[in-house]
Write a structure and sequence with these properties.
The protein is mainly beta. The protein is 9% helix and 40% strand. The chain has two helices and 20 strands. The longest helix is centred in the first third of the chain and has 16 residues.
Length: 282
């Protein structure tokens, strides 16, 4: 098991740092992480999440703009990886706890354990991340800021993406005729690739009927025939917000699709084959 975890972290770090060889020939897809992209209601919610800030302050110097993708900060369960941050490559997390302004991590350097410090994540009252602050006695002091969305972009996304409050789903029949446009996704649960944003141009949605379920992602267009759908209580210590699970058996594949529902009958996540989808925060 230890060997498996170590291999997973190596693969994850490689995916984080390596750029595609054909990047110059492809349309740029790296985008900033906006403050309103995700709510972090628990410290565990940071695992698998990558921040791409647009602004940095170093020590007493004023703020400087950062190019899209020039700086990345990836949180795993016990390690935080940095790209494009002088003085930081990867740090081990010794402890992580909430505090009055957000969350505080105590850390030590992976390559030099004698270097240690604190990483603080400052959130607003709705638990959206505003900035990430890190320092130690031996390394530079940085504050990384997440950009705010323009009113135009907020209105555009509100009209397109499905919010958790938009759909009530205690049982599968309540989804009949509904279309869900997810806001975030994990592309492949088997590889533990980090959670990522979905953009309007990705053209991803799921549509539900009593006897069929449709999934579209770009040119991929799949229809599944429903054999059986049932709702059951869900109890898992790491996911206290999830109270119900809707399991869906289909004819085309020998696996069940899953819809995780909270106590307000809102969808927390949808699992379809190897992918997991999340709705827009309230």
């Amino acid at each position: 098991m230890k060997r498996t975890i170590e291999c997973t972290l190596i693969v994850l770090a490689a995916l984080f740092f390596v750029q595609p060889l054909t990047a110059q020939d492809e349309e740029e897809v790296i985008k900033y992480t906006y403050a309103s992209d995700k709510q972090f209601n628990r410290v565990q919610d940071f695992t698998g999440y990558t921040f791409i800030p647009n602004e940095v302050e170093e020590g007493e110097f004023g703020p400087e703009l950062i190019g899209e993708g020039d700086v990345k900060i990836l949180f795993t369960e016990n390690i935080v990886y940095f790209k494009g941050v002088e003085g930081y490559s990867s740090i081990n997390i010794n402890s992580k706890n909430p505090f009055n302004l957000g969350y505080e991590f105590e850390w030590m350097d992976v390559n030099n354990p004698s270097i240690s410090g604190k990483l603080r994540i400052i959130c607003d009252q709705q638990n959206f991340v505003q900035l990430i602050y890190i320092n130690s006695r031996e390394t530079p002091e940085y504050a990384f800021f997440m950009p705010l969305k323009s009113e135009y972009l907020l209105e555009q996304e509100a009209a397109y993406f499905t919010s958790k409050k938009d759909v009530e789903a205690r049982a599968y029949p309540s989804l009949d005729g509904k279309a869900i446009y997810p806001y975030r996704m994990i592309e492949d649960l088997r590889t533990r690739v980090p959670e990522e944003r979905v953009y309007i141009e990705d053209s991803i949605y799921l549509k539900f009927e009593l006897e069929k379920m449709h999934y579209k992602k770009g040119e991929l267009d799949k229809t599944y025939t429903i054999k059986k759908a049932k709702t059951m209580e869900y109890r898992f210590p790491g996911k206290p917000e999830i109270k119900f699970l809707i399991e869906i058996a289909v004819e085309e594949v020998n696996e069940k699709f899953k819809i995780y529902v909270n106590s307000r009958n809102q969808i927390e996540a949808i699992e379809l084959r190897k992918s997991r989808f999340f709705l827009k925060p309230d």
